Amino acid sequence: MKYIKQIQQTSKTIIAGIILIHFMYLPLVAQNFLTVFEKSKHLETSTYKEGIEFYKRLAVAYPQVQLLEKGITDSGLPLHLVLISKSGSADIAELKSKGKAVVLINNAIHPGEPDGVEASQMLARNLVTDNSLASLLDNTVVAIIPFYNIGGVLNRNSTTRVNQVGPKAYGFRGNANNYDLNRDFIKADTRNTKAFSQLFQELDPDVFIDTHVSNGADYQYVSTTLPTQPDKLGGALSQFLTQQLLPWHFNYMAKAGTEMTPYVNVWGMNTPDKGYDSFIDLPRYSSGYAALFHTLGFMSETHMLKPFEQRVQATYNYLLGLLYFTHKNANKILTLRTQAKQHAQVKKAFVVSWQLDKTMADTLMFKGFEAEKPISQITGKERLKYNRSKPYAKAIPYYNHYKPLVVVTKPDYYIIPKSQWRIIERLKMNAVELQTVKDTTVLPVEVYHIAKYKTRTNAFEGHYPHYNVDVTKINQEVTFVPGDVMVPVNQWRNRYIVETLEPQASDSFFNWNFFDTILQQKEGFSAYVFEDLAMEILASNPKLKAEFNAKKVSDSSFNNDAYAQLLYIYNHSNHLEKAYLRYPVYRYTR
User: Fold this and answer.
1) Which of the two residues, 365 and 2, has the higher pLDDT score?
2) In the chain, at which end, N or C, are there fewer CB atoms within 10 A of the end residue's CB?
3) Residue range(s) defining the domain that contains residue 423
4) Same structural domain for residues 341 and 372?
């Protein structure tokens, strides 16, 4: 892709107006707002109380800063939002109406990775105390979530990030109910996510950044970046991301002294010198969720083995760089997002599952360390060890192309029975426009039945997700009653609607177990009673009888299983309950 080639040409581009803030040379007025990170000589990160107090003092001192509460989290504490704007308004709708581009920064989703907590505090302070940065608020509004996973922030320790270099103490990955919040954006099991969804829809951010620290392979870079996968983002926004934004950002980071590379998606005994795949950010992840709403989403990923001071500096540069770019290109970003929303309203088909295309690879000039595999003194087996005395820079393949695996055409409406309140609740908190059935109505709809699926055998974030789903479809008249919900698929949030309600979508509500009750039969039969009825059923249905006899001939295990044979007849009779394997969300096209 073009941006990969342009990354290699950073020395040819001049970035106007780059200001690298060195921690020891803060403007005098900012000395009153030193962060815990700065006061501790870059060894510590803020506690929850210290971080919120910092923003409270900043909001009191500077009218451009507003500290708001936006819902309750699993910890019982509120989700805070820091709004920084030229006017100092706390009215998000008013700020957006003035044509400002909104940049949303999310911190401490994994509180053991606190680099963004400190970088965001310094950014907020510098935006209102450093005159050279004041113009960045001419075209933008900066919104900061100081601590997203508050329960994890409060669960402070010095041991769980066993591979990470600093800070002295930090929070824990799981939230107050031990959920990993960066797997919860679609299923929304937590109050954190419910509050975030409503906040996200209110802000409708143009650029979204989620701050992290990476595990995995060792390499020379302090910082990597994980933008939403370009093929999945699609359209003119994707071209803008790959051809303009990313080349500029890579160049900016290099000039700022914190050169970065695309997120190194390498694990276990594998090493990046042979090349690596780009990460597919499904909607369960923050940037994948943002892409459903045509937001340019990013995860900043500093490296766990680099000192805390370097990681915070790199994160600060990352945030400031994207803010510079957004300020300079605000009108273009707003226009492209408007066009993407309009296109989504009338789009006929949607990709709901993607597959890596290994036939296509970009070339990436990568700076790593030579990997060695000596024998472990513990296991007696090969272990992986990176030799930092042997750095290298070489071209490697970077597999950054995905192709559609499952494509669905949209109906005019999805119709959801009012009994499926958990689904309706999630649509509402994501600002999906709904219509309520007023009178009992019979409509010709398309009905899915779950034909095949697989299920994970290990628990994953409170679920056993499904995958590899196949469906059959029939056209049928169904009666809907007052209170049932019709979801028109003519709105700009269509991607969210389709990718949650189509069962074959990677992160559909079906795959997240919201409809598992249809996978279990509630009624059955006693074999000794049903035997005689089964004979009558076969006698009255020659086609079924022929299929039944053919299966006995072709399937020896079926032929030797008396109960399986009776169950086959039962399942192909009118005695089978209608709800079994019948997906209770219906597709209606006028």
Assistant:
1) 365
2) C
3) 410-521+580-588
4) no
Q: At what angle do helices 48-61 and 115-129 cross, to 10 degrees?
A: 10
Strands 260-262 vs 223-227: parallel, antiparallel or unpaired: parallel
User: Do residues 382 and 419 share a domain?
Assistant: no
> Which tokens go with 137?
């608020």
Q: Is the dihedral of CA 264, 270, 271, 272 positive or negative?
A: negative
| Same domain? 250 vs 316 | yes
CATH number at 228 reads: 3.40.630.10
For 26-35, how does the pLDDT look when each residue is reduced to its tens digit (9 = 90+)? 666 667 899 9
| pTM, full prediction | 0.94
Look at the chain and report how many structural domains it folds into. Answer: 4
Strands 276-277 and 362-372, by their bridges, are: unpaired
Q: What is the pLDDT of residues 370-387, one digit of tens each?
A: 999 999 999 999 999 999
Same structural domain for residues 420 and 544?
no
Domain shared by 436 and 539, yes or no: no
**Chain centre to alpha carbon of residue 211:** 13
Contacts within 8 Å (CB) and 24+ apart, 283-286: 283/185, 283/186, 283/496, 283/499, 283/500, 283/506, 283/507, 284/182, 284/183, 284/184, 284/185, 284/186, 284/187, 284/507, 285/182, 285/183, 285/185, 286/106, 286/109, 286/182, 286/185, 286/208, 286/210
Tokens coding 580: 């079994």
| Helix ranges restricted to H, 452-512 | 494-501
Q: Does residue 357 lie within any of the structural domains?
A: no
**Spatial CA neighbour of 80 closest among 90, 89, 91, 71:** 71
Q: Give the span between the Cα atoms of 451 and 263, in whole angstroms.
A: 37
Q: What H or E segment, with its residue span, contains residue 559?
A: helix 556-559
Q: How far apart are CA 165 and CA 311, in angstroms?
A: 10
